[in-house]
Write a structure and sequence with these properties.
Elements lengths: L2 E8 L9 E6 L4 E8 L4 H18 L4 H18 L7 E2 L1 E6 L3 E7 L3 E6 L2 E4 L6 H7 L5 H5 L20 E6 L5 E5 L1 H4 L4 H10 L3 H14 L6 E8 L3 H12 L33 H33 L1 E6 L2 E6 L11 E9 L5 H8 L2 E3 L2 H22 L11
Antiparallel strand pairs: 1-11, 2-3, 3-4, 3-5, 5-6, 6-9, 7-8, 7-10, 10-11, 12-13, 12-15, 13-14
The structure holds manganese (II) ion.
């Protein structure tokens, strides 16, 4: 596997010093970006010290993670020993390539990206305050991108004796492009803009330079460092694979009987798995929940309002020849059925035709008082009619 590499760094348009450092070892296939912080130029001491130690440890045979841990210890020791460097620290995002994989070690808010088939994916997850707020659902990615505290990092080399290093592994494919950069690029440009520049420049040196240029045009508010690492496609091997892939489905068995089976493709390599970047499923789920919860809240409020409507009114109707006071809406509303509030002693036989018709579909009232007044009137009107016929019909009604 061949690689081609491009790199560029710039102080930007507002800073007086470039505190970013980068390591580019094309032969050893190790690359890193470190973004230092700390007053009085302690930032560039932090980032340079970290990468020197990191490279030295790798040369001594340390693993990527152990080399970063050693770099942390070295920066921390230096900060402790020199009062003017107290509090200095640095990010580090490092990539180590072998023939099939890229191993990424990461602390802070510098980033590694993968451009594959024209699509840009962020590999590393920022250790920054705003990213944590995004993960907790308290900020949207759009809000985080312009948040005034977006440069506050929650993990760095040199601020503590111990450091936790995140690692990611990428199964490399021909024509993959890996980008490592400091936040001076990503705080000035959105991912789509970065992807556009990367797609427009196939030469990695050119791509790195154009990204720095674009970040400066967008304001250049911080130091900008970009590494572009291209995994070269093996043209001959690629064509052979394509041929084999097209023959992957071959007939086997007795052709005369028409029995066809899908053969196991003998030579086609299994499709490399997606790179192990940030877990997209978990993130997608959380984002989905962020949508679902407000929708459920709105539905809940709507249901409450409908329920209130359905349950708030009263009506006087008829049940089994008796006049009944109901709570609710006649025939019910959605899931809310009317309930019997009061059984009166009035019977439909006590009512005249007009009154019966009136109660047929339920006479509605917005308040209990209105319904009670109506019932009282109804009883008074029937009392006069029933008294005259008491002798011939039902027993006299008890007083209301
Ligand atoms: Mn920075």
């Amino acid at each position: 596997m061949k690689i081609r590499v491009g790199s560029a760094t710039d102080v930007g348009r507002t800073r007086t010093a470039n505190e970013d450092s980068f390591l580019r070892d094309d032969k050893g296939r190790v690359f890193a970006v470190a973004d230092g912080m700390g007053g009085h130029r302690a930032g560039d001491v932090a980032s340079a010290t970290a990468l020197e130690t990191f490279e030295h440890e790798l040369d001594d045979g340390a693993t990527l993670v152990d080399a970063i841990v050693a770099a942390n210890a070295e920066v921390f020791a230096k900060a402790q020993a020199n009062p003017e460097m107290r509090g200095m620290g640095t990010t580090v995002t490092a990539v180590q390539l072998d023939d099939e994989k890229a191993l990424v070690g990461h602390v802070g808010d510098s980033r590694a990206y993968l451009l594959r088939d024209g699509e840009l994916t962020q590999v590393t997850e920022d250790h920054s305050l705003v990213e944590e707020l995004v993960r907790e659902g308290r900020l949207t990615p759009e809000e985080a991108a312009v948040h005034p505290q977006r440069s506050i990092i929650t993990r760095a080399l040199g601020v503590d004796e111990a450091v936790e290093v995140d690692t990611y592994e990428i199964d490399l494919r021909p024509d993959d492009r890996i980008v490592v950069c400091s936040d001076g690029l990503t705080s000035m440009m959105r991912d789509e803009e970065i992807a556009g520049v990367l797609r427009a420049h196939t030469n990695p040196e050119e791509a790195a330079e154009k990204l720095v240029l674009a970040a400066n045009r967008a304001g250049g508010e911080d130091n900008i460092t970009v590494l572009v690492i291209d995994v070269e496609g093996d043209k001959r091997r690629g064509r052979r694979k394509a041929l084999v892939a097209s023959e992957a489905v071959v007939p086997v068995g007795d052709e005369a009987t028409g029995e066809w089976e899908r053969a196991e493709p003998p030579e086609v390599e299994e499709a490399p798995e997606e790179p192990e970047s940030r877990p997209p499923r978990r993130r997608r789920l959380r984002r989905a929940l962020l949508w679902v919860i407000p929708i459920l809240l709105v539905l809940g409020v709507a249901a409450g309002a409908l329920g209130w409507y359905a349950r708030n009114g009263y009506f006087v109707g008829v049940d089994d020849n008796r006049v009944v006071l109901y709570r609710g809406v006649p025939d019910g509303f959605l899931v809310w059925d009317p309930t019997v509030e009061e059984q009166t002693d009035l019977r439909t036989t006590d009512l005249n035709n007009a009154q019966r018709d009136d109660l047929e579909d339920g006479h509605r009232f917005s308040s209990r008082n209105g319904a009670d007044a109506f019932l009282a009137r109804l009883e008074r009107s029937t009392t006069t009619t029933t008294t005259s016929t008491t002798t011939t019909t039902a027993p006299a009604l008890p007083p209301a």
